[in-house]
Specification:
- The chain has two domains: about 220 residues, DHBP synthase, CATH 3.90.870; about 100 residues, Rossmann fold (3-Layer(aba) Sandwich), CATH 3.40.50.11030.
- Strand 2 and strand 3 form a beta hairpin.
- An eleven-stranded mixed sheet has the order 1-8-2-3-7-4-6-5-9-10-11, sandwiched between helices.
- It has ten helices and 16 strands.
- By secondary structure, it is α/β, with parallel strands linked by helices.
- The structure holds adenosine monophosphate and magnesium ion.
- The site of adenosine monophosphate has 20 residues, from strand 6 and strand 10.
Length: about 350
């Protein structure tokens, strides 16, 4: 259902002008009136709505086609706003806020029942973060409200890293889009549960486990992220995500094995897409190669990942094969998203 006029506001990311930007003030008015608008953050574009309003949150879920048992992250503009919405701030959460905010780390707290129950999907906990983007911060300031925001894509599609991606998915379904140019990190925030003693990573993301451990010591990772028979503790992690237009298979093996997979599919008469790093460029028999940057630069790979998944047009390829990455630092988030995009389909060299 694409039945509303979606306003397009182009904003300059200049920190000074953003505070007086009429585009941001207009977008904030929409938020205040419980309409939903997309805005840039340093990770991906978010689809924002008033986190205190059931009406606004219902609009977010409807625009995305998102299952309502998947809670949203609440975005705030200053660290001291957290205490308005949580029971208490545990010591380790405080250390993480001080080390990572503003930035790509979302912290799960026990909430104090001041936000819409639709934001938290009825859970006793709420996920909160302070984004590191001048437009996002100015929008939250201008609305003077906590802003709940999932990624601004239709549910199941790759997350948007440009306003054009948001437009492709949500034009006619939301009140407006604040275009602040391409986002920086390219993958979503890391979600860390600090609501109990056992601090745990529920979703790998822009803040790495290694960096978090340098601040609060060793932490666990939700076993469901690596074991298929465990139910994930973060409700959103159980859904298929980020799917490109053709089925994706991860190829865990050396370059020869990767080429073999492509050649086998070509021999069956298939048009083959390859999602590869620059090191493999021009060396495969794929019908279309999409490059993720160098394997030695995981921040570029993270930035390129979602635009690359979106870049295979409908009918252009029948299957896509993707390279795998070492699961350290940003590689954990990259592999988590690739596995989801592949719906778990991995072929391994013996
Ligand atoms: P998205 O909004 O698409 O970036 O997804 C937000 C992620 O945070 C999803 O994986 C949610 O399941 C997770 N999340 C949000 N709130 C909570 C919470 N209270 N407890 C655990 N995970 C949460
Ligand atoms: Mg999302």
């Amino acid at each position: 259902m694409r039945n509303q006029q979606t306003k397009q506001w182009v904003v300059d990311n200049d920190v000074d002008s953003v505070l007086t930007s009429t585009e941001i003030l207009e977008a904030a008015q929409q938020i205040i009136h419980n309409h939903v608008v997309a805005f840039p953050t340093e990770t991906v574009y978010g689809l924002g709505g008033n986190a205190k309003s059931d009406e606004a949150i219902t609009r977010i879920f409807a625009a995305k086609g998102r299952p309502s048992d998947n809670p949203l992250i609440v975005h705030i503009a200053t660290k001291d706003q957290v205490e308005k919405y949580v029971e208490q701030i545990p010591a380790k959460a405080r250390q993480l806020m001080d080390a990572f905010w503003p930035g790509p780390l979302t912290i799960v707290f026990r909430h104090n029942h001041t936000l819409s129950t639709k934001v938290t999907a009825g859970l006793p906990t709420v996920a909160i973060r302070m984004p590191d983007h001048p437009v996002a911060l100015a929008l939250i300031h201008a609305a003077d409200l906590p802003i709940a925001a999932p990624s601004a894509n239709r549910s199941g599609r790759p997350s948007p890293t440009t306003a054009a991606h948001v437009n492709d998915d949500l034009n006619g379904r939301i009140a407006g889009i604040l275009d602040g140019g391409p986002t920086g990190v390219g993958v979503e925030s890391t979600v860390v549960d600090c609501s109990s003693e056992d601090v745990m990573i529920l979703r790998p993301g822009g803040a790495t486990k290694e960096a978090i451990e340098r601040v609060i010591g060793e932490i666990t990772v939700d076993p469901a992220l690596t074991q298929l028979d465990e139910a994930p503790r973060s409700p959103g992690m159980k859904y298929t995500h980020y799917a490109p237009t053709a089925p994706l298979t991860l190829v865990d093996g050396d370059f020869r094995y990767f080429c073999e997979k492509i050649n086998d599919a070509r021999a069956e008469g298939k048009k083959v897409g390859a999602l590869i790093t620059d090191e493999y460029r021009g060396e495969t028999n794929a019908t279309k190669e999409v490059l993720l940057g160098s394997v030695n630069n995981l921040s570029t790979v993270a930035k390129q990942l979602y635009p690359s998944l979106r870049s295979f047009a409908e009918d252009e390829v029948d299957v896509i094969f993707a390279q795998v990455f070492p699961e350290t630092e940003l590689g954990s988030a990259i592999m988590n998203r690739l596995r989801k995009a592949a719906g778990g389909t991995v072929v391994r060299q013996r």
